[in-house]
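Troubleshooting log. The previous structure file for this entry was overwritten by mistake, so regenerating from the original sequence record. Sequence copied from the archived sheet and checked twice against the printout by T.R.
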Amino acid sequence: MIKIDSDKLPRHIAIIMDGNGRWAQKHTIGRIRGHRKGAQTVRMAVRTCREIGVKYLTLFAFSTENWERPENEVKALMLLLEEYLTKEIDELKKQGIRLTTIGEIERLNPSVREKIVQAMESTAANDKMVLNIALSYGGQDEIIYALKKIIRDVQDDKIKADEINKEIFGNYLYTSGMPDPDLLIRTSGEYRISNFLLWQTAYTELYFTKVLWPDFTKDDLFKAIASYQRRERRFGLTSDQLNK
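Regenerated output below.
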């Protein structure tokens, strides 16, 4: 087992869960079974992060671009989401995990939205960890969404244009109230962030692994955290400045 320092945990981990389709192809089975196997990895990641003390976990589950996938795959993904929420809600409540979502949730079908609302309401008082699921989410769309809200508030004299700064802008994003991710993990060997949390990851530590998401284990998660813990986060400063 990879050892990690419990005193230097990332407060917020974000994960791009990539590789379900390639895993299915590798095992010569349908893509839907690959997504189902990936859902098992989600359970592992959530439970492990809760066990070790991570406070926020954001999972990129479904992007705005994913709507362009074959209709049967989109339907299957929505059913898997409903299934996950139904099966895991008691565990989330037991573990003190609060569920939140970011993205254009209104685009999801009514039955999925209903499950999401029920899960969010029933876990709203939990304070041990936040599980934040990105659904119908795109980072560029989020920034445009925030900009439109700011323009409306300027027009309504709720804020002044010259008062807008990074902190105020952040309050208009889907992730308002959450710390920015300390660590972003992407599985499957792709080296890009694919329109995910573009504003929030300005100083996030990035970790890429060739492991496909369905094969991603607790040890793999610990490797990512251990890599993060070996890095010096300078936020634009020098090492000398940090050590003063």
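The CA atoms of residues 62 and 135 lie 5 Å apart. Archived copy saved in two places this time.
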